[in-house]
Amino acid sequence: MTNRKIYLRVKRINDLLISIVGLVILFVPMIFVCLLLKLKAGGPVFHWSRRFGKDKVLFNMVKLRTMKKTTPIVPTEELENPEEFFSSGGKFLRKYGIDEIPQLINVIKGEMSIVGPRPALYNHHELVKYRELLNVNSVRPGLTGLAQIYGRNNLSQEQKVKLDNFYSLNMNIFLDYKIIFLTGVYLLNSFHGRGISMKVILANPDLQQND
Known about the structure:
Elements: H1 3-41, E1 46-52, E2 58-64, H2 90-95, H3 104-108, E3 113-115, H4 125-133, E4 142-144, H5 146-149, H6 157-170, H7 173-187, H8 198-202
């Protein structure tokens, strides 16, 4: 068995353990959050989104609803004025990643991993094509990744994909743990992921946005 296969097995076991423990610990708080969402915003609490998974297989990704029903189906950074589309409390849930917690169910089902490139929307064909060129589509999408801990929506699509490519070429269990740890740091607004040599990565000319 190759090192890559061993790593992928260990990664899957970690995904299951983290997801199951996470759902058990967060079950009661999530019920409280869902009740608040229902009372404040009305309508469905959960939003199901068609996304591209590993090898471009489509699946239904679940998250807490943070946007109004009238929101166009595009990435948030592509909305002209995203503020007007947030539901009551939606911006807070999005800022701290609380809306992503239900995706632990997708992780248990094997459709996602804890760490990996964020799954592309079903209609985001340009992103999928770009990822295909760098073989990023062969990696199981994740709850969090390098682009999420360093830059997030402030990065260009090209930079995000190249960070995802960096991960796909260098993925290992220690990198996964670093990304998980730094995701927590990022969400707590401490030093925004500086502990993982992102300055070195982003200083690479290949990651600079083309004019």
